[in-house]
Amino acid sequence: MNTNKAFKIRELLLLLGLSSLMVVIVYGCTLGYNKLFGGKEGGQAVGKQWGSPTVEGQIYVITAGRDVVKIPGVPVYAFNEDALREKMKKCREALLADFPKFKNGSQSDWLDFQKQAVWASVTLDQFHSDNFQSTKTDMDGHYSFKLPRTGVYLIISFGERQIFDETEKYFWMTRADMPQRFASYKCDLSNENNVSDAQFPASPEFQFLLLMGHYGLDLPDISH
Description:
Elements: H1 2-37, E1 40-41, E2 44-45, E3 54-58, E4 60-62, E5 68-70, E6 75-80, H2 81-102, H3 107-122, E7 132-136, E8 142-146, E9 151-163, E10 166-178, E11 184-186, H4 204-214
Parallel strand pairs: 3-11
Antiparallel strand pairs: 1-2, 3-8, 4-5, 6-7, 6-9, 9-10
Helix pairs in contact: 2-3, 3-4
């Protein structure tokens, strides 16, 4: 009788121990799952989306003679469009707060200030990695990277090419919707995606300022 009672007590203690162990395992797995699949820990989103899409492509220029010139060694960026627009909204608010300082100055100085501010707001160290990716083209102009998550992205690159005594400057940009996990998307950048004017090429800083205007985030001009 006593033996049976002792056995039942040991059995109960063993079950309690196993239950506690299972709680610890489940809790640990939940934290790991959240980190891997972009869940939440401590009230903040962590990790990137599991199974996020891949984008790959080639950057090239088609000459007047119909030759295809591959563009190696140029940076390629993928910006989540919603996150980029939010960044630019905050940048515009800060610029509007600074505008009174320039009211008695020149439009040129005000424009330079805008360009540098917008450029600083979209650089890699200011942009969270969950909304941004970057790489460089290889010797054949190819690039590829895994996006942080699904969504609409702006694929942007800029570079230049020397033609005898002249330098052609390019700013390639395209908008791509990548809604499916595990999917692979192809996104080439060529003449039709070059938004820089051949006669009056704009700097990348100015192109981002133009993009800000495209989103309806225009800034006032200085007029005397």
